[in-house]
Amino acid sequence: MASPGSGFWSFASEDGSGDPENPGTARAWCQVAQRFTGGIGNKLCALLYGDAEKPAESGGIQPPRAASRKAACACNQKPCSCPKAGINYAFLHATDLLPACDGERPTLAFLQDVMDILLQYVVKSFDRSTKVIDFHYPNELLQEYNWGLADQPQNLEEILMHCQTTLKYAIKTGHPRYFNQLSTGLDMVGLAADWLTSTANTNMFTYEIAPVFVLLEYVTLKKMREIIGWPGGSGDGIFSPGGAISNMYAMLIARFKMFPEVKEKGMAAVPRLIAFTSEHSHFSLKKGAAALGIGTDSVILIKCDERGKMIPSDLERRILEAKQKGFVPFLVSATAGTTVYGAFDPLLAVADICKKYKIWMHVDAAWGGGLLMSRKHKWKLSGVERANSVTWNPHKMMGVPLQCSALLVREEGLMQSCNQMQASYLFQQDKHYDLSYDTGDKALQCGRHVDVFKLWLMWRAKGTTGFEAHIDKCLELAEYLYSIIKNREGYEMVFDGKPQHTNVCFWYVPPSLRVLDNNEERMSRLSKVAPVIKARMMEYGTTMVSYQPLGDKVNFFRVVISNPAATHQDIDFLIEEIERLGQDL
Length: 585
Hints:
CATH class of the domain at 195-452: Alpha Beta
Strand content: 5-15%
Oligomer: single chain
Structural class: alpha/beta
CATH topology of the domain at 195-452: Aspartate Aminotransferase, domain 2
Number of helices: 17
CATH superfamily of the domain at 195-452: Type I PLP-dependent aspartate aminotransferase-like (Major domain)
Radius of gyration: 26 Å
CATH architecture of the domain at 195-452: 3-Layer(aba) Sandwich
Subunit structure: Homodimer.
GO molecular function, one term: glutamate decarboxylase activity
Number of strands: 12
Distance between the termini: 62 Å
Subcellular location: Cytoplasm, Cytosol; Cytoplasmic vesicle; Golgi apparatus membrane; Presynaptic cell membrane
Function: Catalyzes the production of GABA.
Cofactor: pyridoxal 5'-phosphate
């Protein structure tokens, strides 16, 4: 595939002329925003740059308009000439919006009011005085609001109310005190990119209908392969609907590499295949085996050490056992950043074993791949460059809005050979441009969402150094949390030592349990502590953190930090809240 070149498409450092911190740039941006968006441009400028950069006529953020029948305008012109003049949503429906005749004015007014709702939600997401969650039990929420679908259309006033209600009950995953999942935070540039992607509303299967997005996918995947360590960024890849699908792609391609006939003849034409992964790996490996007809019994779980890392000697032992039984080992999936412990398997040792037995090496770096952006932490993935394929989810540690997952493959052309079906109504061979840019035939999907633009635009805005600072900060916050609780009364660490990633795993032991011997009764009672505290957190809405059992370990808290908005004070608050909510248990 020919390179689209450098300049606009590349990730090279910029001269700073587009820096939003530059006052001249800020004012220019505001002028453009006002010209094309009316009053909403004033409001957005006030939010981004403060009163000093806010045009004099701006009135700041207005309350939601869905409760009023008429769209309120933001201009001071008399007579009013803005798009909202004379708009009454109570008498308008979706059929009055574009492409309806004379639909431009109501469309602009409606979308500006939707934008008001979204911007208020964005601002509240970073406000520590607001709740992370307004929790209701499912039956309560079903009864409290009419979610049903009707035959007749509702007016636009009601549609705006639905937008407000939906966000009212949404979890503020960008809130600095949301520590519940691996994907947290709300990046403003990524959010803007997501809005643009939805506006473009195109498909990723051919260059002819997604020219810029296809080029950006090419550029971005190449850059990611360079960072992995493959010479010149060579190889292939694709953005998929999440890490589970990326892992399944790896399994699919590894099987095809060893037995290409399976594409036409199916599993009946190949021997019993065996995959290997650690006992702490993601469940998607077994799901992929089930979906591909390999079977979950053909996924062998390798023992881990006390920190959750795969034990290479056990991997080699299980490979030899499988071969002695006449089975064919075809894939080893090592994990760089396990879901619970945040552990990094010893990739160099795993690579040596895979080379020795000629087995495809996959690295599931969905959670840990972001550390490759950090000079301080990338050593934890030493050996990843020897993998045949890598899963990397920028929507996790790098803070890209969901969803954004990449499968990177070292051998170019293999993914195309494995998956292509050459549908003549999409992939005509006599098109007038370079057909290598029609990338859809290497995907399992036909319809494929544009996931790359969020990552590309954030990369342009932050640079590699910006992602590095983001990741280093989150790792530092995890070490700060560990340093607070490792010797604090009422806390027990699940494993010894500093966290490898931002996963910090611990038990909170209420005063009533601290005097008990470490026996079965204590463990039984301790297992109930985390679920009760989590339930109270959600009902108060103050914070959220995950818990789970693992192996013979009863329920423990797992704090994960990927939101750069979090601070030391938020970590302090979390600890104090756990103690407040759990001291009476």
